[in-house]
Amino acid sequence: MLLLALDTATPAVTVALHDGRDVIASSSQVDARRHGELLLPAIDRVLAEAGLKLDAVTGIVVGTGPGPYTGLRVGLMTADTFGLALGVPVHGVCTLDGLAYAADLADPFVVATDARRKEVYWARYADSRTRLTDPAVDRPADIAAQVEGLPAVGAGALLYPGTFPRAHEPEHVSAAALARLAAERLAAGEELPAPRPLYLRRPDAQVPKNYKVVTPK
Q1: For 40, which DSSP code?
Q2: What's the angle, vertex CA 89, arms to CA 83 and CA 94, rounded to 5?
Q3: Which of 41, 54, 75 lies closest to 178, judged by CA?
Q4: Dihedral of CA 153/159/164/167: which sign?
Q5: Which residues form the Gcp-like domain (predicted)?
Q6: Per-residue pLDDT tens digits for 76-96
Q7: Within the chain, how many helices (H) and strands (E) appear?
Q8: Which end of the chain is more exposed for a tag (fewer CB within 10 A), N or C?
Q9: Residue ranges of the alpha helices (H) in 93-198?
Q10: Torsion angle in degrees (nearest 10) through CA of 157, 165, 105, 73
Q11: Whole-angstrom Cα distance, residue 32 to residue 18?
């Protein structure tokens, strides 16, 4: 097994290789505006670090969000393209699940990432491997009663200490955590789903309300 894992659902552009036993190379850079520019060089970098070529990869793991439309689609399109070119399966893993796995907590907690617009993408977990609720997008004040008293991880939690007073790192997802989680699930015989993006809301760019289509006569 050689899994190539990547995620662009948060400001982190993160890539890792997992050989079936553990992560053998990884790279993470935080830059919310350069996902498309940074992802392919990061993939080249981890392959070079591991001394391997892309054709050695036997599966792709990609974070499915939730996340902003522009950043999230970079990772998903890259994963689908590599999977098609290499003829290998592409597995989708919720980005919040990757953050939860990296938190390594045995008791209930919350994962929250920054959704902008003064909102967070979030979900509740029983432990680092067990999600209790579907990913959602809400204003922190609107979910305060649901998360009261719980530890929290992720950039969204760190941004709103009034709602998440027990927030701590990790701040962003790492592809290393995604790869370890996916490898663990695959080893247990679990069938991972094909990637489906969790946008949760419409893109920021919208067609103007009185837009007129002009066609040549």
Answers
A1: H
A2: 95
A3: 75
A4: positive
A5: 32-153
A6: 999 999 999 999 999 999 999
A7: 6, 11
A8: C
A9: 95-103, 144-147, 155-159, 175-187
A10: 0
A11: 25
pLDDT of residue 215: 57
Q: How many CA atoms lie within 13 A of 184 on its CB side?
A: 13
Contacts of 175 (CB under 8 A, 6+ apart): 5, 6, 7, 14, 15, 16, 26, 27, 28, 61, 63, 98
- Residue 88 CB-half CA count within 13 A: 19
- DSSP 8-class letter at 62: E
Bridge partners, 110 (sequence order) = 124, 152
Cα 48 from Cα 54, distance rounded (Å) = 10
**CA distances (Å), origin 138, targets 8, 68, 110, 160:** 21, 14, 13, 12
Phi, psi of 83 (to 5 degrees): -60, -40
The predicted pLDDT at position 213 comes to 55
pLDDT at 212: 59
> What domains does the chain contain, in order, with CATH numbers?
1-93+171-186 (3.30.420.40), 94-166 (3.30.420.40)
| Residues of the chain scoring pLDDT < 70 | 202-217
pLDDT at 201: 76
Q: How far apart are the first and last CA of the chain?
A: 58
Angle at 125 between CA 159 and CA 165, to 5 degrees: 30
Cα 61 from Cα 75, distance rounded (Å): 10
Cα separation, 67 vs 71, in Å, equals 7
